[in-house]
From TrEMBL:
Topology of this chain in the membrane: Multi-pass membrane protein
Sequence similarity: Belongs to the TonB-dependent receptor family.
Protein name as catalogued: Outer membrane receptor proteins, mostly Fe transport
Annotated localization: Cell outer membrane
Source taxon at top rank: Bacteria
Keyword Transmembrane attached: yes
Organism: Desulfuromonas thiophila
Chief place of localization: membrane
Amino acid sequence: MPAILCLLLTTLLLATAAGASADQILQEMLVRDRPEQRSAGTTALTAEELALLPAPDQSITALLRLLPGVQLAEDAYTANNGGEILPPEISISGGRVYDNRFLIDGLGNDSLLDPLAGAVDDESAVPGHSQELFLDRALLGNLTLYRSNVPARYSGFTGGVVEVETRDPGQVFAAELNYRTTRSSWTEFHVEAAEREDFEHSTSADQQPDFTRHNARLLLDLPLGPRSGVLLSYGQQYSRIPLYLLEETQNQYRRQENLFVKYRLQPHEGTELSLTGLWTPYQGHYFLKDTRNSGFDIEGGGLALNARLKQRLRLAEVEVQLGFKRSENSRRAPADFYAWALTPSKDWGTLVGGKISKEGGYGDIEQLQDSLSLALHSQFVPWQFAGFAHHFSTGLRLEQAQASYERTEPHRYYYYRADTGLVCPESSVECLAGEQFVYYRKDYAVDEADADIGLLELYLEDRLERGRWTLRPGLNYSYNDLTGNNDYAGRLALFYDLFGDRSTLLSGGINRYYGKTLLTYALREEIAPYDRWNRSTKLTAAGTPVPWPASPPERVVTASRLASLETPRVDEWTLGLEQELLGGLLCLAYIDRNGEDLLGMTQLDKDDSNTIYSEWNNNGESRHREVTLSWQRQWARHYLLLDATWQDSEASNEDYDDLLRLEELEELVWYNGQVTQRIGLPRSDYNREWSANLIYRVELPAHFSFTNTTRYRSGYNAIVDSGDNYELPDGSKIDIYQERSLPSATLFDWALQWHSPLVAHQRLTLTLELFNVFNKKVYTAQTGVYQPGRQLWVEVNWAF
């Protein structure tokens, strides 16, 4: 490793030194180079192409769902969550949702704070997301999706890489006002007849029969001179979700803001400086089901500051980047939770037919992630050696990330028993004379925990060209001081230009990718356990509660001890074809991946202090095979994109918190008419075998345009434990797993757009989007839950 570091630093310093007299070499800086080698596993979209892709919530991941090799979760869009505004999670080429790498202007956007935490009503955890910040779609300049043959520059993923470059400030003053909305009255719901009354009288955010959503944005281009300018944008998404709480209607809401500032300066040819700031706070206001005084807020999103300098020198083009980010997953909630017995003073539970009356919440939790990063990249001018043209690139990235967890006040969960003969020694919340007392409680103390990780990434890559052949070997080295792993990820891609005119390109590759190390692993190890207390439900002879024991009967660490962990990895081989066909580009790719050392959990025995521990392990495995086909063409007033994906995924688990003992993975089960190991069962989500998309857009007369999107998803076999056993010849019994077959679905989404003629540099655009035009009933993996039926969105845009 020291040798690699010395080589990298030497080459980078040489490249930098070569620019000592930049003004004198401007005429020599025009490098006549062939464009970066295409790969069938890469999809690159411009701002114009991205504008053609429909997406209900206008998020980046909603756009990606229409690209080959990308799948949404089965519950990403359902009729039960129409008011939610956070971007959906995605799987890329078989990876889990936290296995992807998101980049905004070169700065990482991956949350290391428990990205799979999802329940809003968890006492000790706050919902997370795989992304830290949520970028407004209007700010996209271009987007590149890497699914295979990923260049050595990228690391920290075992799924895919999503790289977004924000748009630059315009060269003339311009402004844009945009408003977009939908609501439940514009949406058709598919609900089982037996469930409709409960759905329409929903008491939980798990079912949202009534909602209103608003998206608004203001964007300004402010040129400061011929070579500099500023882009300003402020947007907000807001939804209101009325629900029933103890027979009264109360509103939940979600709000996400998006403030973006970008300054760009080109002092002379070959030099570019950009400074960006992005602030994306998210707040969701909830209440606990059937619980009085339980309103609480979930806060997320964060802040990013980014500085990039690109300098074209005599020997290389150098990019230097410095970035800072802060994000959070926090909760603001009532301090204590009370499960009151039904008594005359605590009787509201009878309103909902409950056996108890619930009140309060789970207390405040604040989780923050801060990171500071420095990156340096060099792309050298081509040079000849041994008959090959070499395109050499190298770079490094240093990052220091820190996470903190804080419970700012004690939290207690009280469970009561009623007794009219109760005598209280003293007045307290734990004892109400003649009424009820606490016999079970959980205690969470004021607590602070922090964890940090230092990351080093280095890469070397060369693109060797000779005749029709191109070879791209590369090596990515990564190290973090949390697990102490030195990970060497080799990358090798081969390209052959069949006819020498770049009309037919064959490709193949063998690559290794290493995943990221979450700060969750270390943070949870530092979080204090909570105590469980129990005492008798019977009273003493004096009618008082039995005293609490001297020490808690049980202490619980929800997770974890940070054992010696390997970095999860995926080994890949791939074949590809790119063919210019009928005026468009046809891409065919095959991807084969094997995942090893994936994370799971082992529950350990209680220790001497009666504390329960869990420990992460590397027992997880996965296998993914995928074939994708896409073709796109743009001509005259038409645009057409076709893509199809076949894939097969097997995975030991979806969640790093899943219990994953080796003996359980090797356990035999009965599935699909034969004996197989439990680890050989099909993946439980993100596993539609076939999917296809067709997007067609046409410019019509009278300033109209029409876009049709057709989405096909094959049937889905959800895997469930039947609860029955199969007897083997030796008399032993094994579990029987069954498939719950869900039918295929073909959906049509239409968009009709009209814009006014350009008058005095102003343009008014009206858009009507209709999703699921034919109101198709689309099943999800959750019994009785369907995707939304027909839904209308209306958008107004005024540019001036």
